[in-house]
Write a structure and sequence with these properties.
Layout (H helix, E strand, L loop, with lengths): L4 E7 L3 E10 L4 H12 L5 E12 L1 H11 L6 E5 L3 H16 L4 H40 L6 H11 L4 H23 L7 H40 L2 H7 L4 H38 L5 H11 L2 H27 L5 H32 L3
Parallel strand pairs: 2-3, 3-4
Antiparallel strand pairs: 1-2
Helix pairs in contact: 1-2, 2-3, 4-9, 4-11, 5-9, 6-7, 6-9, 7-9, 7-10, 7-11, 7-12, 9-11, 11-12
Length: 370
């Protein structure tokens, strides 16, 4: 039968005398925890612990004794009388406790922040390496055009460009209509219905058209690129290409990124036209504006620079989407969980990078007066 765990406490003004006895084992865990908490309730500077009366001792007892003897900067603790056969276990528990971080939450927060900074730097280096490898491969193909895989390039353009036209046109048409409806609803209060054409045209051509199309392409084609390359990496097909003497950059990545760079400007143009059509349709049906008036107002409101701003952004956004998607695909490890994680990461990072790039372009074009 296991004896009871006892702690006798004699508290003075500046000193607490603690006498431990009985079985300091896991069976008496609840009582030991209660007694230790009682000792910590006293506000004294010195604690003297007499452990000669402890008859049974296990790891839990060692942890409880370690709690009592650990100095926290406010108290001085002295331990006496612990049996030699229990001292080794106590020292091991005490040494393990010293390795544990005391301010766990604060250190965890700092560790998370430091890990985030390191991951950001590592991702930046990966993307820069991918851009450099893509540029070198493109230069090599330009020097020897026969190395360009035209069949693969045409296939990728069909996938990311031609087959994306219906969904791009539908979504941008709806967005253009929504912007026009909201503009008419609010401008009508001030008798400025005609200015909805300026709102729709400038917003679509400069910002919303290219941004919306890029986000849809990142979610549709960027995720597909990451999943394809990740699956090939899992099945070691990319290593097989290297073994055959073929460059994965030239065979897999160059056609995909080039297809995006070529298709996204065309999709941006079609999407912008669809959005303008949707805006004009809503202005006619909801706002009562004659289509001829809408077109005439459109010619006055829009300059060539508005159209150029949106089209200049498109190839750079396509390059960002392609680089991020291919880089994340090559990071996939040998598990389905890794494939799903990197595909999700690819979409999130691509959309984030597209929005950040759009912000930089907005500041740049404002600074040069476009």
């Amino acid at each position: 039968m296991v004896a009871e765990a006892l702690i006798d406490i004699k508290a003075g003004a500046d000193l607490i005398e603690v006498t431990g006895s009985g079985a300091w084992v896991a069976v008496n865990a609840q009582k030991l925890e209660t007694l230790v908490d009682r000792i910590f309730a006293f506000d004294t500077r010195r604690i003297v612990i007499d452990a000669r009366g402890i008859s049974q001792f296990d790891t839990f007892g060692a942890v409880a004794l370690d709690r009592l003897t650990r100095e926290d900067g406010r108290r001085q603790v002295l331990l006496t009388g612990l049996s030699a056969r229990y001292a080794a276990l106590y020292e091991k528990v005490r040494a393990a406790g010293k390795d544990a971080p005391a301010p766990l939450v604060r250190k965890a927060l700092f560790a998370d922040a430091a890990g985030g900074v390191r991951e950001f730097g590592a991702d930046a280096l990966r993307y820069l390496r991918m851009i450099g490898a893509f540029a070198l491969t493109l230069a090599g193909v330009a020097a020897r055009p026969r190395r360009l895989r035209l069949a693969s390039l045409a296939h990728q353009i069909d996938r990311v460009g031609w087959t994306a036209i219906p969904i791009i046109a539908l979504m941008t048409l709806l967005i253009g209509g929504i912007i026009a409806q909201q503009g008419i609803y609010h401008f009508r209060r001030f008798g400025a219905d005609d200015y909805v054409v300026d709102l729709v045209a400038i917003l679509i051509l400069r910002e919303i058209g290219v941004l919306l199309v890029s986000i849809m392409v990142a979610g549709r084609s960027g995720s597909a690129y990451t999943a394809e390359l990740g699956s090939m990496n899992m099945r070691e097909e990319i290593d097989a290409l290297r073994t055959m003497g073929r460059d994965p950059q030239e065979v897999l990545i160059l056609p995909r990124v080039l297809a995006l760079v070529m298709a996204l400007p065309a999709l941006t143009y079609l999407g912008s036209m669809a959005a303008l059509f949707g805006g004009g349709l809503v202005a006619w049906v909801y706002g009562g504006m004659d289509p001829a008036i809408f077109v005439a107002r459109l010619r006055e409101a829009v300059s060539m620079s508005d159209f150029e701003v949106g089209m200049i952004k498109a190839p750079f956004m396509a390059l960002v989407i392609g680089v991020v998607a291919c880089t994340e695909g090559l990071k996939v490890q040998g598990s389905a969980e890794s494939l799903g994680l990197q595909t999700t990461t690819s979409v999130v990072k691509s959309i984030f990078m597209v929005i950040v790039l759009d912000g930089f372009f907005a500041m740049f074009f404002s600074s040069i007066g476009m």
